[in-house]
């Protein structure tokens, strides 16, 4: 066990370790080059009965764990979507861990609730969202979308499904595009609608939902006796950051009185920059909105913001009032345990506060603008290169491309690009991942690290190009 003196000493050493790590992170291969089971077989089958020294723990951490880490913190990490954090955010997490606050109700740490109140307002204004919206910080977008589905379900049934179950209820239908994130599939299952009632609407040549096809699907469902309930529009899909036309979709959801949820998990960060607000045009007609600062707003995982228009419906859906949680302040404050599924909650607003204040709104805008500018630079290089081609538009900072020398059929191109990506990643200098668009194996490059520079982007392009020459 560590006493306070040990804690002080090891914490100082650890901060040095952390700063060294961040300084040298580019020396590690970005993608961990271990095989399945490599790490586990170095871990003893059983735990120690005796207390071990902190030095022993750190030694094993460096020897066993670190080689099995993929370095998300490297500016050469261009895979998936980033889980980009910043130094200000790490420092806030250290405080959060030290305080050990469990912020389930206001009384369990009034500052945790009230800072969250204010951060939800700051972020709403920073993103240009409607003034009347409110919400809370959750773990992930998957949870936010589940909240939206459950609230829509309860509101339409006058809060009776919570009480009585689905028996005798109409068959509700949920709509999203074919390119929507898989979390909606999971959430539809969990919310009890049944996956067969999730209708996937076709997309256009830019991978955005076609509103006419949405309306056609709704009409068809009405004719069949189904009850259309909920539409999820993607503001930035995961495969290609395609933007569903929220304004046109909202006209349809208003006409048929459906719940409109906007999944802006990733691209929501770009709304801090006014030039990107074309993506959210019509947002005031939505009923709910989810966005992850832990992806591209430099805040440690996890931090996902969920906003709703009708907060009373949200609270009616989730509220419980056991005797042991009642407090004298319940009428005057937000008790966020009633705003989502879990009871216990981390003090997540502190890191968001540190991030916004440490970068400043203008600092955040500058970095987001640069990332998008550099992604567009990369897009131009790909377009002028005779043996590479773009496979999707670049609304923000994700570039979808592949090698194509015009001499291979689609099947050959797919396996060639798969091999190309594997080789690049195994070399360890950069790390990218893939998707498929229109059946084409697509390499995804996304630059969202706060320390990313144009030089990193140019180097990445050199590495990619050199593979085929
Ligand atoms: C990442 C992502 C999600 C899911 O995110 P979690 O927070 O991990 O649940 C949902 N939608 C989109 C568009 C995403 O990019």
Ligand identities: pyridoxal-5'-phosphate
Radius of gyration: 24 Å
- How many angstroms does the end-to-end distance come to? 57 Å
* Global morphology: globular
Low-confidence parts, pLDDT < 50 over ≥5 residues?
A: none
**How are the strands ordered across the major sheet?**
1-7-6-5-4-2-3
Structural class: alpha/beta
**Mean of the pLDDT scores?**
96
CATH topology of the largest domain: Aspartate Aminotransferase, domain 2
Element-level helix/strand string: HHHHEHHEHEHEHEEHEHHEEHEEH
CATH class category of the largest domain: Alpha Beta
Count the strands?
11
The count of helical stretches stands at: 14
In the CATH hierarchy, what is the architecture of the largest domain at level 2?
Answer: 3-Layer(aba) Sandwich
* Count of discrete domains: 3
Detailed description of the structure:
The mean pLDDT is 96. This protein is 41% helix and 12% strand. With 469 residues, the chain is of the alpha/beta class. It folds into three domains: 1-31 and 70-84 and 362-469, Alpha-Beta Complex (Aspartate Aminotransferase, domain 1), CATH 3.90.1150.170; 34-66, no CATH class; 101-346, Aspartate Aminotransferase, domain 2 (3-Layer(aba) Sandwich). It has helices at 4-24, 54-65, 87-99, 110-126, 141-156, 161-164, 183-190, 211-223, 246-255, 293-296, 311-318, 349-384, 410-427, 454-466; strands at residues 134-138, 172-177, 198-201, 227-234, 259-263, 288-291, 304-308, 388-390, 398-403, 433-437, 440-446. The chain is built from 14 helices and eleven strands. Strand 10 and strand 11 (440-446) form a beta hairpin. It has a seven-stranded mixed β-sheet with strand order 1-7-6-5-4-2-3, with helices on both faces. Strands 8-9-11-10 form a four-stranded antiparallel β-sheet. Pyridoxal-5'-phosphate (PLP) is lined by residues 81, 140-142, 181, 183, 234, 236-238, 263, 265-266, 292, 304.
